[in-house]
Specification:
single chain
């Protein structure tokens, strides 16, 4: 994307930022879908016809009958009435339809900008990559849903859930970087090599942390140890590392997942304190210097929400806490990409 030079194209930048906002909403809708147990309510993938919910009572009965065939109904929701089914169906339908709306918001303005020649040649390839990433995200989402459409599974596979979530984060960060390329003036970019290296490390750690956040959510690992600051009374539980099970423990051991997620949170917080301290060496008045406390504030809020959600895992309002926790995590990742852009050395 280094070939992009249309930095004054404000309308294209606004369009991209709107897309980023819509993608954030889409991820949060996915979180609500997961937390309400709605993700397996629609057992078919119909990209066009699926845009409409069942339009008659008979159609609703048929959709409910398909849901009654899977394990989630038999083992968890066997008490469901048609009314209960409609409630969970709504969130999965909204999640899918918001994705369809995003597709339209991207495609039609793209065609319009091409006609009006507001998109330079250097911007075409990044646009194509954005469309491909969006399409890939839809495919990954369906593969994830299919992992739970059987008579044994209670939920979707948590590893596939993590892949779906991280793919969304890659798309979001790529979209944000693209928007920054055409909206942030070169004068705002500072030279800070040491800060840039730490920024890159933090981004890598955040991607790993968000992956384990998805593992936590998909595997319901919080239920395995709803205590803090210890883990069920121990600082290093014996079950974190089991002989001959290291590889599996990294992705399937609930205690290991929670231990890694907590440890990464502490490490990222410490590194962000160091990062914030290093920004004092920047020239006063520059953009990065003005926002130097934002990442640290976000991570503190993020840790607080995570601990609170863990301790209140069985509370009725834990859904709101988890959605806020996810939202702040995404904002933190985006902020670190923004700060990285501000110290990026241009060719």
């Amino acid at each position: 994307m280094d070939t992009i030079t249309a930095r004054d194209n404000r309308s294209v930048a606004v369009w991209l930022y709107i897309g980023a906002g819509m993608l954030i909403i889409q991820v949060l809708l996915g979180g609500i879908t997961r937390l309400t147990g709605s993700g397996l309510s629609i057992t078919e993938w119909q990209p066009i016809l699926g845009a409409f919910p069942p339009m008659s009572e008979e159609a609703w009965e048929q959709a409910f009958a398909r849901y009654r065939e899977i394990g989630q109904f038999h083992y968890i929701n066997s008490h469901f009435t048609l009314s209960d089914f409609k409630a969970i169906y709504f969130w999965e339908w909204l999640h899918r339809d918001w994705a369809r709306l995003m597709g339209l918001v991207f495609i039609f303005p793209f065609i319009w900008f091409l006609i009006k020649k507001k998109i330079s040649r250097g911007m075409v390839h990044p646009m194509i990559i954005l469309f491909l990433l969006g399409a890939l995200q839809g495919i990954i989402g369906w593969v994830m849903v299919r992992s739970g459409l059987n008579t044994e599974s209670l939920y979707v596979n948590h590893v596939r859930l993590a892949i779906h979530f991280i793919a969304a984060m890659v798309l979001l960060c790529y979209l944000l970087w693209f928007a920054l390329k055409i909206s942030v003036p070169a004068s705002a970019i500072q030279s800070a090599p040491a800060l840039k290296k730490l920024n890159l490390l933090l981004i890598v750690l955040l991607f790993i942390q968000l992956t384990y956040g998805a593992f936590m959510a998909g595997s319901h690992a919080a239920l395995a140890a709803p205590t803090w600051p210890d883990i069920n009374g121990a600082w290093l539980p014996d079950s974190v590392i089991r002989a001959g099970e290291f590889g599996r423990d990294l992705t399937h051991n609930l205690i290991s997942i929670q231990f890694i997620h907590r440890g990464l949170a502490y490490l990222i917080t410490i590194l962000l304190f160091i990062w914030s301290f290093m920004t004092f060496k920047l020239k006063e008045g520059c953009l990065l210097h003005k926002i130097r406390y934002v990442p640290l504030l976000l991570v503190i809020v993020q840790v607080f929400l995570g601990v609170t959600a863990l301790l209140r895992v069985l509370s009725p309002n834990v859904i709101l806490l988890n959605i806020l926790h996810q939202f702040i995590g995404m904002l933190l990742l985006m902020m670190m990409f923004f700060t990285l852009f501000l110290v990026k050395q241009e060719k």
